[in-house]
Every structure is written in C-alpha cells, then in structure tokens.
Design a protein that fits this description.
With about 200 residues, the protein is an alpha+beta fold. The chain contains 9 helices and 5 strands, in the order βββββααααααααα. It has 3 domains: about 5-60, Nucleic acid-binding proteins (OB fold (Dihydrolipoamide Acetyltransferase, E2P)), CATH 2.40.50.140; about 65-140, DNA polymerase, domain 1; about 145-205, no CATH class. It is about 45% helix and about 20% strand. Strands 1-2-3-5-4 form a 5-stranded mixed β-barrel. This is Holliday junction branch migration complex subunit RuvA. One of its GO terms (cellular component) is cytoplasm.
C-alpha cells in the first residue's frame, strides 16, 4: 500500500495531478485537483489510496488524511466505487458527511451523484457509529472554522481562481456567475474552501 507520495507537483487537470519523484511522474486521481494549485511546481505531500483490481491499478490522492480514510470507508459500502466516493468527497467536508450519516439524513445523501435511496440507506447502515471521531468538538467549533481576515483584493483573487476551477470542472459561465454572488457573502481564506462551497451550492440548485 502506498500511504503517501511526496515530490514536485508538475501538472493538474480536471481529474488528476502529476507528481514527479526521482524522474518518475505519478498520476494521482483527485476529487478536486485544484485544491493543490497553490503547490504547482513546488514540493507537495499527498495522502494516497492505492486501488488495486485485476484490470486496474490507480492512485487516489487527498489533501487531508481524514479524506483518505473516509474514501476507504466508502469503498466498503455496497454500491459505492472510487468514482462515487470521490464525488462525495469533492462536494462535502468530512464533518458534514458524518453528521448526515449520524442523523440518518438519507434525503441529504441522495443529492450526491449516483446515490439513490437504497445506496443512501446502505451507507447509513454500514457507516453509522464508525465515523464519529471526525465530528467537530462543539466546545472548539469556533476555533475549527475560524478564517483569517483577508483584504477585498485578496478575496476577489480567491473568488476568481475558484470560478476558474469550477468552470474547469464542467460548469457553465451562467452557473458559475450565479454561485459567485452567493460565495461573495462568505469569508474564506483559501481557494479550495470557495470551490467546495461552490460545489455544494451547485448541487443544491
């Protein structure tokens, strides 16, 4: 099992990033490669899941270790494959997903691509009680979700990058423009936070 890879981030596209290590380029599939764009042409460490089947070997990459761990848990659910697991991780944060599982909110879970009511119930059956370690501590919730203050110019730059990332994922200019008006109300300090929130809004529309 390849636990992580550490090397220079050479390229990123809609579905993967390429990391060069000792002259070898490793293609790593990601839920949202643009989460890593700040590391382009720099050294980056990516947590990886080595998916092995008779006809397929793929590396899936994650910025956070808990994302990788949730991906592995999702693969154990009947009806969820790597593509479906990535779609979930690209749309929602780990605590939000765990909260939906613990509350048995199958209506929320069926909003994910390829997840019907049967699969949603199966996820709840298989995962409830196993993921609570990733729920935020209510006493420290303000600290967990604290965002650094940023200037208006910095915020515009972050939003511009997030809009380009959403368009690269296949959304139209019209869809992205509508989402931007909502995202302007938020106050994030990272592009990937805006992208994640944008995906959530697009999924609800």
């Amino acid at each position: 099992m390849i636990s992580y890879v550490k090397g220079q981030l050479m390229t990123l596209d809609e579905g993967s990033i390429t990391i060069e290590i000792s002259g070898i380029g490793y293609e790593v599939l990601c839920a949202n490669p643009f989460h890593f764009q700040d590391f382009l042409n720099k050294e980056v460490k990516v947590h990886t899941y080595h998916y092995i089947r008779e006809d397929n070997q793929s590396l899936y990459g994650f910025k956070k270790k808990e994302d990788k761990q949730l991906f592995a848990q999702l693969l154990n659910v009947s009806g969820i494959g790597p593509k479906g697991a990535l779609a979930i991780l690209g749309t929602v944060s780990v605590p939000e997903f765990v909260s939906a599982i613990e509350q048995e909110d199958d209506k929320y879970l069926t909003k994910f691509p390829g997840v019907g009511k049967k699969t949603a119930r199966q996820m709840i059956l298989d995962l409830k009680g196993k993921l609570v370690v990733w729920l935020p501590d209510e006493e420290n919730e303000d600290t967990i979700f604290y965002q650094e203050d940023i200037t208006s110019k910095q915020k515009r730059a972050l939003l511009d990058d997030a809009m380009e990332a959403l368009k690269a994922l296949g959304y139209t200019d019209k869809e992205v423009k509508i989402v931007r008006s909502e995202l302007e109300k938020a106050n994030h300090s990272k592009v990937d936070d805006y992208v994640r929130r944008g995906l959530q809004l697009l999924m609800k529309s």
